[in-house]
From TrEMBL:
Keyword Transcription: no
One GO cellular component term: external side of plasma membrane
Compartment(s) where it occurs, according to its Swiss-Prot or TrEMBL record: Membrane
This protein's name: Ig-like domain-containing protein
UniProt-recorded Gene Ontology molecular function terms: signaling receptor binding
Pfam families hit by this protein: V-set
Organism: Anabas testudineus
Residue ranges annotated for the Ig-like domain, each copy included: 19-124, 127-246
Signal peptide: 1-16
Length: 332
């Protein structure tokens, strides 16, 4: 009985506690992205916000502002147009609403060619229905980092050429290119998929990105069935960000045969003197060390016996009774 009664009560409490519904006086709630949006300098970004349930926002006044700026207006929409008179100049010609989607309650703001100073908290406000929410945007300047150390592989193996953006940002929707020795296209990823038509035939069917890592800015390349002609310099970059972000590079070194395999065919220890040379030396050194330690220990024991022959048993007995009272004191 108690459970049946408390359940709806609890649900009501939880729902009204939700910050998004807390200010709901109409029948629609403004819901914006609660996760901080991190993007690179130079890209376009959408700050997602919508009215739920979907409500026609076409005729509403819609304010996108940054309270920390002066003037604070980023994009004010009223009577079907942008009120640019008081717009902060740094946002001139860089903001846009999805006007044809306002009717569905989509009040998202698109910012073009973001700069570092676009980092901040954006407030979306609909005065007529008293709805407001905040979206946090972080714009970072990243470096593309390949590998300082060359990557080594053996003919026929698969290899990962590491490359990532630091600090990381989501490159899922951006074009990513890999180039070999400054000329051949190794791999092109664009429009959310690989573009095999633009890659050199030498790399056909042999390359892939880690698609589920792209959102973390990881653009590492997997190259399969490595051959000697794959040896060289690989460059990774994001063409859209060429002006803001450098390129990364990785050097691949290809060995014809695995070095370990040359030594492995003879795993049985043969008493071949040249092969055992280092082993023997190590053995002698270790044995000598053990002997020295034994001798030293023996000498010390012998000396103690000689100097105070009757003390040893007494010491052992004295220690124990002392320990017990000490422990009891500690516990009290
Ligand atoms: C609003 O519309 C734009 C453009 O179609 C879309 O990219 C965005 O995801 C939509 N946002 C929401 C919250 O529906
Ligand atoms: C990017 O690289 C440049 C030089 O290569 C360096 O000065 C800068 O600190 C790096 N930035 C980051 C965020 O690592
Ligand atoms: C190579 O690509 C062809 C189509 O272009 C495909 O049929 C084949 O399965 C691929 N081979 C491998 C090993 O992926
Ligand atoms: C990128 O992804 C690859 C494959 O999962 C992984 O080996 C590598 O460590 C990742 N790099 C970074 C910087 O996370
Ligand atoms: C690997 O590449 C070699 C040529 O470099 C080719 O002969 C061989 O069939 C390839 N192996 C696989 C598994 O694709
Ligand atoms: C790769 O780059 C290194 C230094 O960046 C250079 O010394 C080397 O000659 C290059 N190798 C090729 C094959 O271009």
């Amino acid at each position: 009985m108690i459970r049946l009664l408390t359940y709806p009560l609890l649900t009501t409490f939880v729902l009204s506690f939700d910050p998004n519904t807390a200010q709901n006086q109409g029948d629609s709630t403004l819901i914006c992205s609660t996760e901080k949006i991190t993007v690179s300098v130079g890209v376009d970004v959408v700050l997602p916000c919508r009215l739920q349930p979907a409500t026609d926002a076409e005729s509403m006044r819609l304010e996108w502002t940054r309270p920390d700026l002066q003037p604070q207006d980023v994009h004010i929409h009223q009577d079907g147009r942008l009120l640019f008179e008081n717009q902060n100049p740094s946002y001139s010609f860089r903001t846009r609403l999805f006007v044809d989607q306002l009717i569905n309650g989509n009040v998202s703001l698109k910012l073009s060619r973001v700069t570092l100073s676009d980092t901040g908290k954006y407030r979306c406000y609909l005065p007529s229905i008293h709805q407001e929410a905040v979206v946090e945007l972080s714009v970072v300047k990243s470096n593309v980092t390949g590998s300082h150390e060359p990557v080594q592989a053996v003919v026929g193996q698969d290899v990962i050429l590491p490359c990532h953006l630091e600090p990381p940002f989501d490159v899922t929707t951006l074009r990513v290119d890999w180039i070999f020795n400054g000329e051949l296209r190794v791999h092109v990823h664009r429009h959310l998929k690989d573009d095999p038509d633009s890659q050199h035939k030498k790399f056909k069917n042999r390359t892939s990105l880690f698609l589920d890592e792209l959102h973390q800015g990881n653009i590492s390349l997997k190259l399969t069935n490595v051959s000697e002609t794959d040896e060289g310099n690989y460059t990774c970059y994001v063409p859209k960000l060429e002006r803001q972000v450098n390129r990364g590079s990785v050097t691949l070194i290809v060995d014809q045969v695995e070095k370990k395999e040359v030594e492995q065919p003879d795993p049985t220890p043969s008493p071949d003197p040249p092969h055992l040379g280092p082993g023997l030396v190590a053995g002698i050194v270790i044995s000598s060390l053990i002997c020295l330690v034994c001798l030293a220990a023996g000498f010390i024991w012998w000396k103690r016996e000689r100097m105070c022959p009757a003390q040893n048993p007494d010491e052992g007995q004295d220690n124990r009774p002392e320990d017990v009272p000490l422990q009891q004191q500690g516990q009290q």
